[in-house]
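Justification of computing resources. Each target in the renewal requires a structure prediction run like the one illustrated here; the chain below, 438 residues long, is used simply to show the kind of job we budget for.
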Amino acid sequence: MDNNRRTVYHTLMDVETKNAYSNIAINHQIILHKPNNVPFVRELAYGVLENKMLLDYIIDALIPRDVSKLKAADLTILRMGIYQLARMDSVPEYAAVNESVVLAKKFARGREGFINGVLRSYINEKYNIKLPDRADDEVRYLSIKYSYEPWIIRLWLESYDTEFVESLLKAGNETPSVCIRMNWLKIMKPDLIRELTARGFEVEEGKIAANALHVKGQGLLDTAFYKDGLFSVQDEACQMVAQMLDPAQGDVIMDMCAAPGGKALSIAERMNNKGTVIASDIYKRRVEIADREAKRLGISIIRTRTWDATRVDSAMVEKADKVLCDVPCSGFGVIRRKPEIKYRKNEAEIEALPAKQLAILKASASYVKPGGVLMYCTCTINPYENERVVADFLRKTNSFKVEESRQFMPNIDGTDGFFICKMRKVNDIINREMAGLR
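Resulting structure tokens:
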């Protein structure tokens, strides 16, 4: 059995049957099975995940029964086979079919004949399978073509025109580049570029974030440069949080939903490791990741703790120069990294998020000193979780004013979808100045 395809199969089954995150599942299975062609594994696994609804639509056209009635093992092997036949030109037809049958003999015994027949039917009928008529139902057409749940498409159509939404859907299916954040506590950008290039990596400077580099090449995280803390992996839009927050040496910064710590670490780097960063999260295990990363990066000013961000810590009221709220969200901005997000069916779960996000924002606002900064962030593209949460917050207080707000878009900026709103605490300053005049 081909070890590469076996690794893909187990990855997809983890996502399908255990609700595993794709990035965690694929890394786990690669470590477990040690495939000899990791790029092939990633291409096939993510290709299937990104196109799952389209693949199921094709399979449904080739079988007499409803595709939803198929067992997970059968369906996973068929998706893998059809994706290879349809999108992977480097794979010969016979190899795609034969290797799928081999997988079936191991993981779907007794179904190898059925799977062989469906794949050969696809080879004969692929040009006769048409997408739904766009004129009849545009949402269904886009849903099948780009493999998104229809309700997500309808959500975006409330805010953007059809052409923009289609480009957004397409961008969500593209493979993002590897973006790293230079750790200027240990190295400067020209030196890191030179060192990585000398070891065969292709390096380009970021277009948005000052410390961002885009790197091509295998084994980046196995290098001594990574192990010695010269850089971290972080998307450009995410890097903009620390850049827009603009922390100063000696500041007291609170990161209220910090784990696994990327933004807190980025903030500490920009402070030249001078000051205090209090990184809180509700999950102790995830907070411990931030501690390990701080050690790797040579950062000593981060204080981690477990804390429910919806609660107010009375000991920290008006003690922070700047407070970051990177709140739990729907994650629609990172679909290109976690394609399983596209297939969420529970709208009610998403609709409940703004209330929690607002509660975190309100509690976090109490920590900001007069004249300090409150920053609200999500990794999603959803006005209900972004602009409307900020608007609801501002309606309930006259103490904060928006200084800067930006929605990063994968189809426009080439980054993850990320929302950042920077607010300044102003009302207390005005009140105190007026009190001094009386």
